[in-house]
Design a protein that fits this description.
The chain has 153 residues and is α+β, with helices and mostly antiparallel strands. It has four helices and six strands. The protein folds into two domains: 1-45, no CATH class; 72-152, no CATH class.
């Protein structure tokens, strides 16, 4: 710590002489959320560097998670989309395409009833997604573009 300048980076305090921004080593002083005594139960837990089992990135987190938050959210989104595709029949309702999950999209039949866009909300609970899915049909990307172009003319 020998008099190094401290900076605040995402609620964690680092010493520039021991750990420049971007590295995860701390020198003597724990992250700020330990000092605040927050109610999320992290006050006395040991926070260690872990390696994500999916992407191999080093992340800094308390708890039993074996994946970084980015990978966990990605898995949740992919799982919800797979459930949604299965819920709507598993194939394009117009041409029957079912080869690639990423090529399948949801089209709102009536744009006035649309409350939320599905592509931005795959991280929500499946119950919330299911309410919106009942207003949609499943289409492949080609059929979806054809319908949108016909509506825009």
């Amino acid at each position: 710590m020998d008099g190094g300048k401290r900076i605040d980076c995402r609620n964690r305090v680092y010493c520039l002489t021991c750990s420049p921004v971007g590295k995860r080593k701390m020198c003597g002083r724990p992250p700020k959320f330990w000092e605040r005594g927050s109610t999320n139960g992290l006050r006395n837990k040991i926070v260690v560097d872990k390696v994500c089992k999916t992407c191999g990135k080093i992340f800094h987190q308390a708890g039993r998670n074996l994946e970084c938050s980015t990978c966990r959210i990605k898995v949740i989104r992919e799982t919800n989309k797979l459930k949604a595709v299965e819920y709507k029949g598993g194939q394009c309702s117009k041409c029957g395409y079912k080869k690639c999950l990423k090529a399948l999209e949801f089209h709102h039949i009536d744009q006035m009833t649309k409350e939320l866009g599905l592509s931005d909300n795959w991280g929500n609970s499946f119950e919330k997604i299911k309410i919106e899915l009942d207003k949609c049909i499943l289409l492949c990307s080609n059929c979806h573009r054809e319908i949108q172009d016909a509506n825009n003319l």
